[in-house]
User: Fold these one by one.
Assistant:
Number 1:
Amino acid sequence: MNKEDGLFTTVVGSWPLSNNHENMLRVFTDLIHLGIDFPCYPQLLSMTHQFLSPLSEKITQLEEIDQKFYLYNDFEVPKKPSALEYGEFIVNFFNDHPDLKASIKGTKACLTGPFTLTFEIILKNEIAEGLKPIIFEEPRAVMVDWIVDKFADFTKQIATAYNIMGIDIISCDEPILGLLVGKKILFHSEDFIINTINKAISGIRKLSSIHVCGRISPYLRDLLLKTDVKILDHEFSTNEQNFKIFEKKHFQGTDKFLALGTVHSKFVRTQDKKISDYVEHVDFLKKFIKRGIEQYGKENLIIKPDCGFLPLKETFGEKDGYEIAIRKVKNMVLALNSLK
């Protein structure tokens, strides 16, 4: 991806459909036909369970009970990476549909980062001793440097494997960083945050990305800009305050891009509203994207939805949830194309 080409489109990853191969094929094919430049494999299950469940089957110290994860002792990261079937899905898809590859500029894969994974792990026994929960009811793995560091190794393994598969954008999704880094950092040092992210993405040879939800603090912005990550991916449609956080100077003269969240991805259902009422109009999106271009420069921007669409499954059901999501992406692409 060259900056002079500018204004690419992608998606964050998750979709409001049941987790099966047929739905993955459906979503991925739809994204290509809609004109997404860098389609991501469809994430149809929890972003933490996707990676922690298979890991818990490989290490005895990590146990899954009633969809919660418990770590009882120190562990070794398995030498063979887990959850590679999602990257393999992309490879197999284009082996079966080589004609569709010419329609896109590249591919994207997402994996959950070490801070978000360890945030979901509850500590038990000796490794929980002496830890006083601050924002939890019980000690969590994210509070302990050496555990987070081991999960950075785990993430690096998967990212490296995705890189070997030839995937162009590999995103380390870290929604929890918005909570951990505000005016100050919870649990860790600035250097630890930067070094951990850099380790997690160190196997990526093309474009590394990091996705953080919510409002970004100036402190978190500065930390992310100090990392080796090439794409900073954030919500702007839901959190327009982020327009005040990022400036063109942060990306100008660098190899970094800003992925601009352009359509809402989670919202409540309102009585008497039609499906179309939840979908941003093309004219509105044109103005929104134009605002981003004027503020950041088209050469620095990637256009995408705010976040993943999985929450729409619970709010609207699969049929309506998917229709809303796919219409939003369609209008986003149409709006951008009308500006090129």
Number 2:
Amino acid sequence: MASVIEKHLIFCESTFGRSLMTKEADYLGNELKGRRKILDVGCGIGAFEQRLPELNIIGVDTDEEMIKAARARRPTNTYCLVDAKRLPFLNASFDALFYVTSLEFMDDYKGAIDEAVRVLEPEGKLVAMVLNPESRYFQIHFSKEGSYFRRMKHKNPGQMVDYIEQRFNLQTNYFLGVDGEKIFDTEDKRYASLFIIKGIIQAL
């Protein structure tokens, strides 16, 4: 049986996976344009570091095999094997931070957000792209035995919004329609595979 990383690599190299991640990278590139130092929390194999070489991104993850794969794919970036709740960076070290389908899988997303607040400088930006449990894409994958989607710890994005908006001026939207192998632009939550939470940190 294939390991989690083997399944992830197969997905990322598939035509569908490449198309999906390119759309996500385009969205991130637009949102993070002009940011000087960016942290990717839950970087996995470094897919966004690879697709956004013009951005100064440091990747962190808790999976050693993912970090090894990321270093092999994009060795010019820095990658760290660390817990999202205990980042080895000074206060106000970054002016942007993002999560792509990682925050909702963490046991303690609140602790991760607290760390994000700590390492972001004033006017720092957060972008969280989380799976949308209301979408048909999610429901189809969740119904499959052994699906990685079943590891998702937090299936109510609204609860995450409630916590994050205590420290960030937020905007939210649905993004990235998926219907079978078809990928398209939509904000219809029946088809949008992702729910976007983004905002600027509030001054204390």
Number 3:
Amino acid sequence: MKQFIAAACLVLSAATANAVDIAISAQDAYNKVKQPEAKVLFIDVRDPVEIMFTGFTDMVTVNIPYLIVDRNVWDDKRGNYKPNYNQNFVAEVKAELAKRGWGPETEIITMCRSGSERGEPSADYLRDNGFVNARYVVNGFQGAAIKEGPQAGFRLQNGWQNSGLPWSMKMNKAKMYRVDK
């Protein structure tokens, strides 16, 4: 039994030895992807409608939603439309890697609005599906909400937007997830 446990630990150790930490700051993600020969797939995992109202950075490689809002189903508990998992998420990530001649060992960075509801879970999901170098941007695109004071509830700290990194309200049609393609 001890030999089995030791062997299992060795295999797990070897599998994770080459994997990068899962969390990355917005600034570090920017520094990686701005390199001319960067071999990083930077994915905005937000629903395109959300991007339309919160902004976009053209530094991302592509927009592939991890969750897609179903505008036909209302979630009474949350008081909004129900999001569904994008059943094609892994296949779409694989297709983007294949376009570039990259494999599953490629560093993949995901980014959502806050980093918690889609950013980290999408990176975990990618790791569970063989992409050992998947990561997510901590605090996401908009950052964390201020907890107290007159601006309580506004996302005005950390994240991509609040780090002085390039973004705009203009979406890049060539990078956006579209069902009409």
